[in-house]
Write a structure and sequence with these properties.
This protein is an alpha/beta fold. It is built from 13 helices and 15 strands. The protein has a 6-stranded mixed β-sheet, with helices on both faces. α1 packs antiparallel against α12 (396-409) and α8 runs parallel beside α9 (315-326). It is globular. 38% of the residues are buried.
Length: 483
């Protein structure tokens, strides 16, 4: 039985007019769907010049490990940044040291080369307090060979004196340089302005999905996970070159497939490109798949993360999946090469994958074999379902009946001696779904209750495979005489 309190909260307001809130009265400005980050910016530099600190400053949160000891950043870190309304993907690399024979340093150099190949803009970070070194000169040669837009930054310019000392770095042949202090934020505005100017033109915001348009599906994953084999299987012909060596796919190729009246636009991950001098099994080849995946995901509404179950799901798979979730894409996890597993290991594979990808338990997981075709039809059916959920719009009446039941079963917990009240719920956007909850005191709604709301929305409306966004807004009080 529904409580009178829950019904009152949903259907009445405390405004002076005592009239129910209507959907068009929500103070939410109309806007086009937000475009995903477009453009890749790579931070490079020798050890201990403050790249990770600058990365954290531009991202706006502490992600990269920061420590005074050189070489703390051993792998590349990725994050989405925004400068003056322009969103882009920022890449932090390890310290560049070409003179070192240490295998870790050699691997870092290759990762920097990988970043340079995929980046649209490179930020070369130098130390404003130290004169140019032989490592800096070697780095200049690498940057000139890359033929990419480069922004030179003199970091650790915490004062005007340090900024003056940085002028010695012009001996490297630099024409323009921006003095910054990543630690204190000095000069960051000038750097962000330079980044926006150097980025290529932004991609247009994605249009609202057309019911007759094919489902755009990005197939992403580590090298040699079987992405091209899956495209060939779905297309019914050898559309993509398939080889055991990672890095076979060199350019993004779109393949239009129709199954049971439904069209799919399959986007194979853009090239895992590598220089001839880079060893085929080098870590840089694997790390480049992340940048390739970023570019592919910008065009898709459903992302299929293809994992090699013979090798096992890795942290790299989790990193790529995290980027898809951050971009609001629908997600399906495909466990490929199950034909290589024994029956006991095949049964264990889903649980092992869930352990690694635990942050997205709502993403459906399908076991397939691109080689034999096992599970491929199930994969397509799941993609179609996730696409429908991605575009789904729930009528306001259904949403409010749902919230009546939610409030009757579990009301928001009391905060400061008073329980926040929920008045009205509506869906503001699709692709992915965005729900707006009008409440008396949104800040008082505990995160655990917000998580409970998301879980109940997913369960009630079968929103499998898509991230759910819920925005809590304070009810706008209507004044006397206001229409």
């Amino acid at each position: 039985m529904k409580s009178k309190r829950s019904q009152r909260n949903l259907n009445t307001t405390e405004s002076d007019s005592e009239e129910p809130i209507q959907g068009d009265e929500l103070d939410i400005p109309a806007r086009p769907r937000q475009a995903p980050p477009s453009g890749v910016v790579a931070l490079v530099g020798r050890p201990n010049v403050g790249k990770s600190t600058l990365f954290n400053r531009l991202i706006g949160k502490r992600i990269a490990i920061v420590h005074d000891e050189p070489g703390v950043t051993r792998d590349r870190h990725y994050g989405d940044a925004e400068s003056y309304g322009r969103r882009y993907t920022l890449v932090d690399t390890g310290g560049f040291d070409p003179s070192s024979d240490d295998p870790m340093r050699v691997g870092i150099r290759r990762q920097i080369e990988a970043a340079l190949l995929e980046a649209d803009v490179v930020i070369c970070v130098l130390d404003a307090r130290e004169p140019a070194t032989s490592v800096d000169h070697a780095e200049m040669n690498l940057l000139r060979a890359a033929q990419k837009p480069v922004i030179y930054v003199a970091n650790k310019a915490d004062s005007e004196r340090h900024e003056a000392e940085a002028s010695e770095l012009y001996s490297l042949g630099i024409r323009d340089m921006i003095a910054v202090s990543a630690l204190h934020g000095r000069g960051i505005d000038s750097l962000e302005t330079a980044i926006v100017r150097a980025l290529p033109p932004p991609l247009p915001p994605p249009a609202e999905p057309d019911g007759d348009a094919p489902i755009a599906v990005a197939i992403i994953g580590r090298p040699n996970a079987g992405k091209s084999s899956l495209v060939n299987r779905l297309a019914g012909k050898e559309r993509m070159l398939v080889d055991d060596q990672p890095g076979t796919t060199r350019d993004p190729i779109d393949t239009l497939v129709e199954r049971n009246g439904q069209k799919f636009l399959l986007i194979d991950t853009a090239g895992i490109r590598r220089k001839a001098k880079v060893e085929k099994k080098d870590d840089a080849v694997e790390s480049m798949s992340v940048m390739a995946a970023v570019r592919t995901m910008e065009r898709a509404e459903v992302v299929v993360l293809l994992c090699d179950t013979d090798e096992g799901v890795s942290e790299q798979d989790a990193k790529i999946l995290g980027l898809a979730v951050d971009r609001g894409a629908g997600v399906v996890i495909g466990l490929n090469k199950t034909d290589l597993l024994s029956e006991p290991n095949r049964k264990k594979a889903p649980d092992a994958a869930r352990d690694k990808l635990s942050f997205a338990p709502w993403a459906p997981l399908i076991q397939i074999s691109a080689k034999t075709g096992r599970g491929v039809n199930n994969l397509l059916q799941t993609i179609t379902e996730v696409s429908g959920n991605y575009r789904k719009r729930v009528p306001t009446g259904e949403l409010n009946r749902f919230f009546e039941q939610v409030l009757a079963n579990r009301a928001p917990p009391t905060s400061g001696g008073k329980a926040p009240r929920i008045y009205y719920v509506t869906q503001a956007e699709t692709a992915p779904p965005l729900f707006v909850v009008v409440a008396s005191d949104p800040a008082a709604i505990h995160f655990s209750y917000r998580r409970y709301i998301v879980n109940q929305l997913r369960k009630t409306f079968n929103l499998v495979g898509v991230p759910i966004r819920v925005k809590y807004v304070e009810r706008r009080r209507r004044k006397l005489g206001e229409k």
